[in-house]
Amino acid sequence: MWSRTDLRAHGGPAGTPDGDAELAADDLSTRLRSALDGIEQAIVICDVAGRAVYQNQAAGRLLSGRSGDALVVQAVADATREALAGARPERPLHLISPVRRSLSIRAFPTGEPIDGAVAVVEDISERLRLEAVRRDFVANVSHELKTPIGALALLAETIDGETDPDVVGRLVRRMGGEADRLSRIIDDLLDLSRIEANEAPSGALIPVAEFISEAVASRQEMAEGLDVTVDVVALPTGLAVAGDRRDLVSAVANLVENAVKYSEAGGTVTVEATRQGPLLTIAVSDRGVGIPARDLERIFERFYRVDRARSRATGGTGLGLSIVRHVAANHGGSVRVTSVEGEGSVFALDLPAVSLPDTPPREGASDDDHD
Question: What is the per-residue pLDDT across 321-335, written as a single tens digit (0 to 9) for each?
Answer without folding.
Answer: 888 999 999 999 999
